[in-house]
Write a structure and sequence with these properties.
Blueprint lengths: L4 E7 L4 E7 L4 E9 L7 E6 L10 E4 L5 H14 L9 E8 L10 E2 L2 H9 L8 H14 L5 E5 L9 H4 L5 H6 L9 H15 L7 E7 L3 E7 L2 E5 L21 H8 L5 H10 L2 H6 L4 H9 L3 H25 L4 E5 H6 L1 H8 L11 H5 L6 E2 L8 E4 L4 H14 L1
Parallel strand pairs: 1-6, 6-8, 9-12, 12-14
Antiparallel strand pairs: 1-2, 2-3, 3-4, 4-5, 7-8, 9-10, 10-11, 13-14
Helix pairs in contact: 1-3, 6-15, 10-11, 11-13
Length: 404
């Protein structure tokens, strides 16, 4: 029997998301979430997916789950109950989402002690994410020591940015000493969506230039030339770039100095302000785009201003990346907001006919879970909506590495 299954783990600070996929036919066998780890109100939701050999029936477990070790053991138990446990000979690998790979990790990597130590050393660059990623890896390795564990890095897809794009214009010695450069994030999503866009257009990925707009609570844009990322909006951290749910995106760096000198803010207070209390939330009190749109539709001035700022930043990046690429074949929207908020797509593309971008209003307003074009037939540049699939991308990269 050829092992063809990959368990994908996304370990957050207080949660674990997981999917079990069979790469023989790219099908999903199970998915789930453990949230509020370490609290009395911990919750595990497990869903074996319908299909041949896969039982159906969503299960939910409430009650304290002490730590990530207990969480992953609970996940293993749920999978085992459906005959898909970690001891299965059909399991080929565990694929781990790791947020920051620094400059060393630019492709998926089989994890050993040295690799794990390197990932741990990158915690200063991603203090909110890499610690949880490390914990997930450690626990998974302890549960199945003989199984290949593969790290797939959010930053890896953007490692192809030219050096003059990745560098900040600061003192070079200081930048090198503290690893200050633009890394980019959401890489697995941008990789998957850029390739899926090429398939949607019926062209080889090498022949397609696409601007990908990953719009969720976190948001990022990328310029992808022939399947290779040449520019992206996030930088040293996921704070740079677009207006997001709670993050400011681009601001004058002197805002930090002003808040410290005039406002008396500490470094941690400024960090919290820009990452957790800004963006849509900071401007109007809501970070859920659905609520922002509802309020704006009712004439709420704060929500209308927040939406206008959000869309304006999108337009700036679309225009800038069109200039970077020179030729654009498609602008693709993805993730929760990008896939579902037709008003965002409409507002972002409005007025960009000069770039060849024109929407078909009816196609844009129609809801679908499938990849689709929403541009007018006469448009020179396609506008696409492609649901992202980061778990499938992680599984694909992990499986390719261990079976190569």
């Amino acid at each position: 029997m050829t092992a063809s299954r990959v368990l994908v783990l996304n370990s957050g600070s207080s949660s674990v998301k997981y999917q079990l996929l069979d790469m023989a036919d790219r099908s999903r066998l199970a998915s789930g979430l453990v949230e509020r780890i370490g609290e009395e109100t911990s919750r595990l939701v497990h869903e074996p997916l319908s299909g041949p050999g896969a039982p159906a029936g969503r299960r939910e477990r409430l009650g304290p789950i002490a730590d990530h070790g207990a969480a992953l053991k609970a996940v293993a138990g749920e999978l085992a109950a459906d005959g898909m446990g970690l001891d299965s000979p059909e399991l080929a690998a565990v694929g781990h989402r790791v947020v920051h790979g620094g400059t060393r990790f630019t492709r998926p990597t089989v994890i050993d002690d040295e690799v794990l130590a390197e990932i741990r050393s990158l915690i200063p660059l991603a203090p909110l994410h890499n610690p949880a990623n490390v914990t997930g890896i450690e626990v998974a390795r302890s549960l199945r020591a003989d199984l290949p564990q593969v790290a797939v890095f959010d930053t890896a897809f953007h490692a192809t940015m030219p050096e003059h794009v990745a560098r900040y214009a600061i003192d070079a010695a200081t930048a090198d000493a503290y690893s200050i450069r633009r890394y980019g994030f959401h890489g697995t999503s941008h990789a998957y969506v850029s390739r899926a866009t090429a398939r949607l257009l019926g062209k080889p990925v090498e022949d397609v230039n696409v601007i990908v707009l990953h719009l969720g609570n976190g948001a990022s844009a990328s310029a992808v030339r022939g399947g290779v990322c040449v520019e992206t909006s996030m930088g040293l951290t996921p704070l740079e770039g677009l207006v997001m749910g709670t993050r400011s995106g681009d601001v004058d760096p002197a805002v930090v100095f002003h808040l410290a000198r005039v406002g008396g803010f500490s470094v941690d207070e400024i960090d919290s302000l820009l990452n957790k209390k800004s963006g849509l939330l900071g401007m109007c009190g809501d970070n859920d785009m659905r609520e922002v749109l509802r309020r704006a539709g009712e004439g709420d001035e704060a929500a209308s201003l927040a939406f206008a700022a959000y869309v304006h930043r999108l337009k700036k990046y679309i225009g800038a990346y069109a200039a970077v690429l020179g030729r654009v074949d498609a602008v693709t929207f993805t993730a929760g907001v990008g896939e579902n908020a037709h008003q965002v797509r409409e507002a972002a593309i409005d007025g960009l006919a000069v770039l060849g971008l024109v929407l078909d209003p009816e196609a844009n307003a129609a809801r679908s879970a499938e990849p689709r074009l929403v541009s007018a037939e006469h448009a020179r540049v396609a506008v696409a909506v492609v649901p992202t699939d980061e778990e499938l991308e992680i599984a694909t990269q992990a499986y390719a590495l261990v079976t190569d």
